[in-house]
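Q: Can I see a sequence and its folded structure?
A: Here is a first one.
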Amino acid sequence: MPLFQKNNTAGPFDYSRKWLLRMVFIVGTVFLYAPIVVLIIFSFNDSKRGGNIIWKGFTTKYYTKAFGNEELMLAFGNSLTIAVASTVISVLLGALTAIVLWRFRFPFKPVYEGLVSLPIVIPEICMGVSLAMFFSQMGWMQTGDSHWPFNLTNIIIAHITFSFPFAAMVIRTRLQSFNREMEEAAKDLGASEFRVFKDILLPHMKPGLVAGALLAFTLSLDDFVITFFTSGPNTVTFPVKIYSMVRFSVTPEINAASTVLIIMTLVLTFIALRYQRVDSTS
């Protein structure tokens, strides 16, 4: 008979602790998601004011007005262009960075890892100001003469700067589960370095590449602070346009546009998490 046995009976303290944890979870969930739910619900409110909390009836006309707003759609097109371009380059740079950090040993490697992770930890406001100063010193800030999409270059570079470290972290996590014996076996059978990368390493990296791309795309599509500092006078992205509309008044059209952005972000985040789950199980 063991000297010490675990007491399986739950006392009053255990029950109170469980209820406390449940209350904290419920309060935290309501605090985080209640404003989003209210925004989505009242985007269908048949009211002339977006801040009106009195339900006037169900309507979808403000979604029609939002999609019919040429300036808003132009801003949305700018955001999509920036997100796609920055995502492609961020995944490429992130994959190369992840392979270097995973495969090689070299002097000052911890310093390099810290520099790669720096855009993740520093405040966005600091990064936005520093990038704006850099573009101004280089003479890259827009003067109004650039043509679309070349007037988006500054924002694309800025988005790559803060997006590719996230992609690198996701891809490197995927590489940690790679069995290097497969690579060695392929080389023993006469496969070249390129063939090993193409047929063995790249398929293993694929879930990480997709997850990193979705994460980078979501970060770029939602960004406001860095975009606000690096955009020129004639370039407006979707989040910046919504901000400029909110400064005058909150209308149901803004609620509808914000709902579209929220749904896109949630869908992309869900897909990224699914691929992350594939990474952990495969």
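Q: Show me another, different protein.
A: A second, unrelated one:
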Amino acid sequence: MLYLKLNKYHKSPLSPKGGFYKFPLWVIGGFLFLSLQLSAQKRFEFTHPQMGTIFRVVVYATDSTLAREATKKAFVRLDELNLSLSDYREDSEVNTICRTAGSGQYIKVSADLWNILQESVKAARLSAGNFDVTIGPLTQLWRRMKRQKQLPTSTQISEAKAKIGIKKIVFNKDNQSIMLETKGMRLDFGGIGKGFAEDEMMKILKANGIKSAMIEAGGNIVISNSPAESTDGWEIIINKEKYFLKNCGVSTSGDAYQFVEIEGKKYAHILDPKTGIGHTEPHQVSIIAKDGTISDWLSTALYLMPIESGKKLAKKLKAKTIR
């Protein structure tokens, strides 16, 4: 579980022998200017529903107008990404592409869809297929299973798995177009989309003068510089332990809240591309990585991977794993 609150503690420099440091006037002036800047920063919080959850943004700014306008632009960016990546919206870019699957057509895609697909391909290769955005056909089966409270048949699972595989996406770099080779393919960015969106939103906030911010959405957190109250970072509690973090992404994948219970057995909502169904043994994994995109997909992948393989992958990506 992830929780976030502000660190209330400050650290003060002390002289070696209990006396006073002697600083040039320009250094003292610099300290005073920085102190005034920090004291002028105020905390503002905004929320926006999107991608099946609530995006919460906390920013520090000198005034409410700056905070509101910067965050408004970040939410506009979020809405743009949802229109491109949502598999719930029939008019989304990704669903439009999926309707051409198996036609042999290359379809030119937006920069956003192209970029997240490039990240998704890397993730699939690094995770040995445990993370795979082509899992959409299985996602559809899971949603139906959830509604009907009935497990899909082995035939249904086999048919869905036949439409899955990152190699079934063919890229044409010359004109930024893609082709989905197999009819019935569906892309599902549920394991990477929120982290990707948070990274893009953070770029907007920084470009609009916000130096300290936190974006949280459905188990994913992206944070920039420390809040005004702290030099240590944002205080985040993971599995009852405190972490002080800045300029990183944090994600948790687990089955504590999202599962289907059928005949007394709980099936996790995170589907295994190899078996075609969710795990039945409850567990969770949290990841601290350099950005939200990596922490998002990596937590999904490590949830499914053997522990030792997951540790090696996290180490390769310089990410911290918490179970």
